[in-house]
Structures are given as structure tokens and as C-alpha cells.
Amino acid sequence: MSNRVRIAPSILSADFGRLHDEVKAIEAAGADYVHVDVMDGRFVPNITIGPLVVEAVKRATSLPLDVHLMIVEPERYIDDFVKAGASIITVHQETCAHLHRTLQQIRAAGAKPSVVINPSTSLSAIEDVLGEVTQVLLMSVNPGFGGQAFIPATIDRVKRLRAMLEAKGLTSVDIEVDGGINATTAKQVVAAGATVLVAGNAVFKQPDYRAAIAALR
Ligand code: DX5
Ligand code: ZN
Predict the structure, then answer these.
(1) What is the atom index within ligand 1 of the atom nearest the CA of 44?
(2) N or C: which end of the chain has fewer CB within 10 A?
(3) What is the pTM of this model?
(4) Pocket of ligand 1 (CB under 6 A)
């Protein structure tokens, strides 16, 4: 595990009319990943983007694409997102009837498997698949929209997940946190054991992306 905290700006808060330039700008500003929020209007109320746009983002950057699938039956689309250029694919435990199989499907397709749970889902729901993933994402808001307030109970969840991973000897698994991250909450979750921070508004709604990313790190 690298000690350096990685920053994954979420393009959900970008100007979609200038998506190519926005992605280039965060790369130049020091981002580590591009976080892509895929929403289907079924698992979450909002509808966003699909593989076609992921492919366009891929053409704009050499950064790894961290694709967060907030869709029902994600297994139907994993291959399409890998072909479009996803490096990491995150699926919600709440959407997977056969989570272990879906994580293996991601790996077989050539991407890094990652699992995510909502703020209301117990850590025990993913405990038995921790050996199958390179990253666990803990939602720190209810998924669906950018710009929501951070849920403070996430800090203790990060600590408990880090302890769970250590107890299993899985020290290289990343803990990513998504939702309401700003300079204050970033510091809190990193102290608790997070290694990857997603940030939408805290990057794209700021005048200076480089300063915004540096402030989070
Ligand atoms: C929420 C998304 C997040 C969101 C984060 O459903 O998964 O990635 O865009 O946005 P901020 O950082 O503005 O809360
Ligand atoms: Zn996300």
C-alpha cells in the first residue's frame, strides 16, 4: 500500500459540454484517477452516463478510470465498461445477487474488482469477499447526486474496515471514500485509514483544480 493518498475527481461535477478539457485539466492538476459515476435511474434516482462516454473520457487521459456502477444487474455491463477503458470497476453489494461471481467476472474481463456499500449497509455484508477485491469503497453519502453532506458515521466505518482488512492480512486493499469529501472530511477519513478519496464539488466547483487537489491531499 502506498502511503500517498490518491485523489479521484468525480466528473459528475464537471462541465459535460467541455468534458474532454475538464478531464485533461484534472490530469494536469495532479489527479490520480478519474472517477466515473454511472447511474441508471433504477438503483439510484439519477441517470448519468454509459460506456460511450467512458470511451470518450479514456481518449482524453492516460489516468486510470475508476468506474462506479450505480446500476441494477451490473454483471450485464461489466464487459462493455472494460472494453470502454475502465481500469477499476466498483459494484454495489446491494445490486449483486451473486457478488463473489460478479467480482470474479470483473477480474476475468481485465479490470480491478472493487466493491461498495451504502451508508446503511453493514460491513459484514462484504466481509467474506474482501479477498476478491483490490479496493473497497465506502459511500459517505447516499448515492445519486454530487454535492451532498458527508455522513460522519463513515469515519468509524473506515476504522472498522481497516481493522477487518488488517486482521485478514489484506493490507494492500485500498479503502476509497465517496461523497461530501472536502479538506476537513478528507483529513478525518485518511486518519481513519482511507487511501483513495473521491471528490466532485471539492475539485470541479473550485476555481483552481491544482490547489483543490493539493488541499485534499
Ligand atoms: C454520488 C457519487 C459521488 C459524487 C461525489 O452518488 O458516487 O461520486 O459525485 O460528489 P461530491 O464530492 O460533490 O459529494
Ligand atoms: Zn461515485
Answers:
(1) 6
(2) N
(3) 0.97
(4) 10, 12-13, 35, 37, 68, 141, 143-144, 146-148, 178-181, 198-202
